[in-house]
Design a protein that fits this description.
Elements: H1 2-28, E1 41-47, E2 51-52, E3 67-68, E4 71-78, E5 83-91, E6 99-101, E7 103-111, E8 114-115, E9 121-123, E10 131-133, E11 138-140, E12 144-148, E13 153-160, E14 164-165, E15 168-170, E16 177-181, E17 198-200, E18 203-204, E19 206-213, E20 219-224, H2 226-229, H3 241-249, E21 255-260, H4 275-284, E22 289-295, H5 298-302, H6 317-333, E23 337-341, H7 361-376, E24 382-384, H8 386-390, E25 391-392, E26 395-399, H9 413-421, H10 425-428
Parallel strand pairs: 20-21, 20-22, 22-23, 23-24
Antiparallel strand pairs: 1-19, 2-15, 3-14, 4-13, 4-16, 5-11, 5-12, 5-19, 6-10, 7-8, 7-9, 7-13, 15-18, 16-17, 25-26
């Protein structure tokens, strides 16, 4: 009996020891490997470069009110690549006082000013609906969960509760927007017949849309002038040459941002800042940018002597090439691939306008010298020869009639399509054709 009674605690001790060893082994064993989370990153999918609003005595009207107060602005933008979440960028780059934003919404567009009702989302900034855009600054929204397919149209509505002088805009948006009284950010559509409703093709405050992507973010930015901005492209048709190029890039998951400004120049300010002054904001700061296309210089060559710059001297070839070199070096120092684009023909440009002296044979001679340098200098990583794509083979100083909008300077829709189709995608991002991207495409 004694042996039996002594054996019970010994058995319990052994059991406790076994449990302890098992627990230790369990603690020491590595946990099963968790499924890796897909990487997420932001990429710029649309842009409209901010410009300073000019005075009433300028050659062109601004097409916007000088002050907005207790009004809503609704704007539509077609993104290039899509994503499950997005955020918007607002700008007060040229303002001299803070702008109070009362409310902002975003939705998928149903055409014109109408929204897909189930897609309407309120946009916040640091968790709050109201926000302030400081002078000279931009404002980035919180992420908004709203699945957007590639090449889809997004409607952004902004309510300004206070008297707000308009100092920053993008003059030629090639897209109709609406300005209406009161807070109509949640309105399913804007009543265009209302006498208080104003329409405009300028962009106000909205300068960027970004989407979150699970694949490696890749974007191409086009730094250009009115030809890139789409000065004569059909309104509301997304028919600028970067729009057509965006449709080619979208199946590869590559975004495109149009940083064209009508009247932009390489070396001088004009209807927007010179190229180097806006390089950081319009190109280098865009998330996901890998390549930049530079199509600038025709206004540098042709503005001098016109109503735009009656007393300005024409730049030399050396000054222009130095500007291209500096732009290229700064972009390449940030890891970007830089693609140069030749300047398109412009003989007899802008007839029957105050700028009918835009063309001159001496100016065209300089354009040809610049194009020869772009093709042969080796400064750029690749060259897009838009001059060769658009010129009339029988009269190379002129644009071919089938591509001409009629003003002999800007291509029409078919010319824009021809430019986009002339782009070698491998020149933008080598190996692109071997890396398929997103396949959710909404036809433009």
């Amino acid at each position: 009996m004694r042996r039996l009674t002594e054996s019970v605690p010994a058995g319990r001790a052994a059991a406790r020891l076994a449990l302890s060893l098992t627990a230790s082994a369990m603690l020491a064993a590595p946990a099963p490997a968790a499924e890796p989370s897909p990487p997420v990153a932001w990429v710029a999918t649309w842009g409209a470069s901010p410009q300073p609003v000019w005075h009433d005595d300028f050659l062109f009207p601004t097409n916007i009110p000088t002050v907005l107060s207790e009004q809503t602005i609704r704007q539509v933008a077609r993104v290039s690549v899509g994503g499950e979440r997005l955020r918007i960028v607002l700008s007060n780059a040229h303002g001299d006082r803070p702008i109070t934003l009362g409310k902002a919404t975003v939705a998928r567009s149903r055409g014109n000013s109408a929204l897909e009702a189930d897609s309407l989302r309120t946009v916040t900034f640091g968790g709050r609906q109201a926000a302030t855009i400081l002078p000279g600054a931009s404002l980035l929204s919180d992420p908004v969960t709203l699945p957007i397919p590639a090449l889809a149209q997004v409607a952004v509505s902004l309510y300004l509760p206070d008297a707000t002088p308009m100092r920053t805009f993008h003059w030629d948006g090639r897209q109709t927007g609406w300005i209406v009284p009161g807070d109509q950010t949640m309105a399913p559509a804007i009543e265009a017949a209302d006498a208080a409703t104003q329409s405009t093709t300028a962009r106000l405050l909205l300068t960027g849309i970004q989407v979150q992507t699970a694949q490696a973010p890749r974007a191409v930015v086009v730094l250009g002038d009115s030809i890139t901005d789409g000065a004569t492209a059909s309104l509301d048709q997304d028919s600028r040459w970067p729009d057509f190029l965006a449709a080619r890039l979208a199946p590869h998951g590559v975004a495109l941002v149009n940083a064209g400004i009508s009247g932009a120049r390489l070396l001088s300010d004009g209807m927007g800042a010179n190229a180097l002054a806006r390089l950081d904001r319009d190109v280098l700061a865009q998330p996901g940018v890998h390549s930049v296309i530079v199509m600038l210089g025709i206004n540098d060559i042709a503005w001098p002597g016109t109503a735009f710059a009656p007393d300005s001297p024409r730049p030399t070839l050396e000054a222009l090439t130095a500007g291209y070199r500096q732009l290229t070096e700064q972009a390449r120092a940030r890891g970007l691939r830089v693609i140069g684009a030749t300047l398109t023909p412009f003989e007899a440009a802008l007839p029957d306008t105050p700028l009918d002296n835009y063309y001159h044979a001496d100016k065209d001679a300089l354009r040809r010298q610049v194009n020869d340098w772009i093709r042969r200098s080796g400064v750029f990583d690749a060259v897009l020869d838009f001059d060769a794509a658009l010129r009339d083979p029988g009269h190379p100083a002129r644009m071919a009639s089938r591509f001409d909008s009629g003003d002999h300077l800007h291509p029409g829709d078919e010319g824009n399509r021809a430019m986009a189709e002339a782009v070698d995608l491998d020149a933008l991002l080598p190996g692109l054709d071997a890396v398929p991207g997103s396949t959710t495409i909404q036809e433009p």
